[in-house]
Design goal:
The chain is an alpha+beta fold. The chain has 4 domains: 39 residues, no CATH class; 95 residues, Alpha-Beta Plaits; 133 residues, Gyrase A, domain 2, CATH 3.30.1360; 165 residues, Multidrug efflux transporter AcrB transmembrane domain (Multidrug efflux transporter AcrB transmembrane fold). It has 13 helices and 17 strands. A hairpin with a 2-residue loop joins β13 and β14. α6 packs across α9 and α11 packs antiparallel against α12. It is elongated.
Length: 503
C-alpha cells in the first residue's frame, strides 16, 4: 500500500471521527445550560411551551445536537431501571385458556411487540435514550437515563392499555352481595352474578389522588374497544380541566352511534385494564365518532392516557418485577470517578511507554490517543451509551493497545541486534513478524467479548461492546498508524540511523 493511500485511509477515519464527535462537543461544551436542563429533565418535557420563539428555535437545535451526541449510561447519568415480565397466565385468563396453549413463537412475537409499544409510549412522553433489552423467561430490562419520575414511567410501562366501553348494569354502587377488598383490589368471582362482570371505579379524592372508590356491575358485552380508536390526544373541557379526546374508525363510529342511540339515559363505563376510569351518562347520540374521557385527570395523567391509547394496547399484560432508581448526584459522582480512573490509566500507560521506548513511545502515545478518540466516536455514531462498564472496557483497550506496541517494539529491538542496527530493515521486519502474534491474541479477546455480549446482560454487554470495538480499533492504530509514522520518518530521512533515543 502506498504512502498516499495509507495517509488517505488514516485521514478518512480521523475525519469521520471528528464529524461524529462534533455534535457532542457543541452540546456538552457550547449549549446553554437552560436548554440542556429542559432536554435532560425527562419529566419536564413540555417546559419549552413557555419559551419565546427564539428560545424554541435554539432548543430544537440543541435537541438535534443531543440526538447525535454521546449518550451517558444509567450508572453515569442517574435514572431509572425497571425489570418487567410478560404475564402470559393473566393473558390466558383474559382470553379463556391456559398459558401452555400459547406457543413459543407466539410468546416471542408478543415480546417483540411489547418492546415496540413500550418504546413508542416512553418516546412519545418526551423521554429519550431509552434502552430495552430482552432477558430470559420473557423478561425485559428497561433503562431510562436521567428519568426522575418512577411513578409516571411505571404507569406508562405497566398499563396494558386495554380499553373497553361497556354499559353499567346497576347504576348504584353494587356493594350488596359482593365480596371485595378495596385495598388489595380483589373481587371474589363467586359473588358476582354469572351474566355480569364487576369492576372497581377509580375516582379522585379530596387530596387529588386517584384510587379505588367502589364497585359497579357491568354487562359482559364490549360495544367499542381500544382497537377501534384512530387517534387520541390531550384536550381541555369546558372548565379548562384536562380531558382525553379520541376519534374512532368507521366500525367504531357505527358501534358507538348504535350504543349511544339505543341507551340514552344509561351509564356507559370507560374501562381501562379492568378498572372503570369514568362513568358518564348517555345524553345524546354520538354519531361522528368523536368523544372525550373526562375523569378529573391531572395534566400528566391525561397526557399519558392519551399516548397509551394512541400507541395501542400491549398484546400481553406485563408486571413490574423490580425497579431501581439511581440518583443523578450518585451518577455524577461515579462519572467523575470513572473519568479520573480513565485519565490515571492513560497517564500511567503514557509514562511507562515513554520511559521504556523513548521516541517510539511518543509515536505509540499518538496512536493511543487516536485509538481512544475513534472508540468513543464509534460509540457515538451508533447511538451506544457510554457506561461505567464501557469506560472499564476502554481502559482495558488502552492497555491492550499498548501491549501490541510493546510486542512490535520488542521485535524491532531484536531485529536491530541481528541486523547490525539497520533501522529501516529492522522496523519493517519487526512489524511483519509481530503481526501474527498481535492478531492471534486479539482474536481470542474478540471471541471472549462476543461471548460476553451474547450471554451477558446489562453492564456486561456495555463492557463487551466497548472491548470489542476497542480491540478492532487498537489493531488499526497499532499496526497501521504507528507503521505509517515510522515509514514517514524513515522515508523522508528524519530518522537516518539507529539511536538509543529512538527505541
Amino acid at each position: 500500500m502506498s504512502k498516499f493511500t495509507r495517509f488517505f485511509v488514516i485521514a478518512f477515519f480521523i475525519g469521520v471521527g471528528i464529524y461524529t464527535m462534533l455534535p457532542s462537543v457543541l452540546y456538552y461544551f457550547f449549549t446553554d445550560e437552560k436548554y440542556r436542563a429542559i432536554i435532560e429533565n425527562a419529566s419536564g418535557a413540555d417546559a419549552d411551551e413557555f419559551l419565546s420563539e427564539e428560545d424554541q428555535v435554539a432548543l430544537e437545535y440543541a435537541r438535534s445536537l443531543r440526538s447525535k451526541s454521546i449518550k451517558l449510561g444509567l450508572d453515569l447519568n442517574g435514572g431509572l431501571s425497571i425489570e418487567v415480565e410478560a404475564d402470559f397466565d393473566k393473558y390466558a385468563e383474559l382470553v379463556g385458556g391456559t398459558a401452555s396453549d400459547i406457543s413459543e413463537e407466539e410468546k416471542e412475537e408478543s415480546i417483540d411487540r411489547i418492546i415496540t409499544k413500550v418504546r413508542n409510549r416512553i418516546d412519545s412522553a418526551g423521554v429519550s435514550e431509552i434502552s430495552i433489552r430482552k432477558q430470559p423467561n420473557y423478561r425485559l430490562s428497561i433503562e431510562i437515563p436521567g428519568e426522575s419520575s418512577p411513578e409516571r414511567i411505571e404507569n406508562l410501562v405497566a398499563t396494558t392499555g386495554r380499553l373497553e366501553f361497556r354499559l353499567v348494569a346497576v347504576t348504584q354502587p353494587a356493594s350488596v352481595g359482593l365480596v371485595y377488598d378495596l385495598e388489595k383490589g380483589t373481587i371474589e368471582k363467586s359473588s358476582v352474578p354469572s351474566d355480569l362482570d364487576a369492576a372497581f371505579v377509580y375516582d379522585t379524592n379530596e387530596a387529588g389522588e386517584r384510587g379505588r372508590s367502589y364497585v359497579l356491575l357491568l354487562e359482559k358485552e364490549v360495544y367499542v374497544d381500544g382497537n377501534q380508536i384512530n387517534n387520541a390526544r390531550l384536550g381541555y373541557g369546558q372548565y379548562g380541566e384536562p380531558v382525553v379526546t379520541f376519534e374512532l374508525n368507521a366500525a367504531g363510529t357505527r358501534a358507538f352511534a348504535k350504543v349511544t342511540g339505543e341507551n340514552i339515559g344509561r351509564q356507559l363505563a370507560v374501562v381501562l385494564d379492568g378498572n372503570i376510569m369514568v362513568v358518564p351518562s348517555i345524553s345524546t347520540v354520538i354519531a361522528d365518532g368523536q368523544a372525550e374521557i373526562n375523569g378529573r385527570f391531572g395534566l400528566d395523567e391525561a397526557r399519558d392516557l392519551s399516548l397509551i391509547l394512541r400507541s395501542g394496547s400491549l398484546p400481553v399484560p406485563i408486571r413490574i418485577i423490580s425497579q431501581n432508581i439511581i440518583d443523578a448526584r450518585v451518577g455524577k459522582d461515579l462519572r467523575a470517578r470513572a473519568f479520573k480512573a480513565l485519565l490515571l490509566g492513560l497517564g500511567s500507560v503514557m509514562l511507562f511507554i515513554i520511559l521504556f521506548y523513548r521516541l517510539s513511545g511518543v509515536i505509540a502515545i499518538v496512536s493511543l490517543l487516536i485509538n481512544a478518540f475513534l472508540v468513543v466516536a464509534f460509540l457515538a455514531s451508533f447511538g451506544l451509551s457510554v457506561s461505567l462498564a464501557g469506560i472499564a472496557g476502554l481502559i482495558l483497550t488502552i492497555g491492550m493497545s499498548i501491549d501490541a506496541n510493546v510486542i512490535i517494539f520488542a521485535r524491532i529491538r531484536e531485529e536491530l541486534e541481528l541486523d547490525d542496527y539497520n533501522l529501516v530493515g529492522s522496523v519493517r521486519r519487526g512489524y511483519q513478524r509481530a503481526f501474527w502474534a498481535i492478531f492471534d491474541s486479539n482474536i481470542t479477546t474478540l471471541i471472549a467479548a462476543f461471548v460476553l455480549f451474547n450471554f451477558g446482560s446489562g453492564f456486561l454487554q456495555g463492557f463487551a461492546t466497548t472491548l470489542f470495538v476497542g480491540i478492532i480499533v487498537s489493531m488499526f492504530t497499532s499496526l497501521f498508524i504507528t507503521r505509517f509514522v515510522f515509514d514517514f520518518l524513515l522515508d523522508y530521512k528524519i530518522l537516518k540511523r539507529y539511536s538509543k533515543i529512538i527505541i
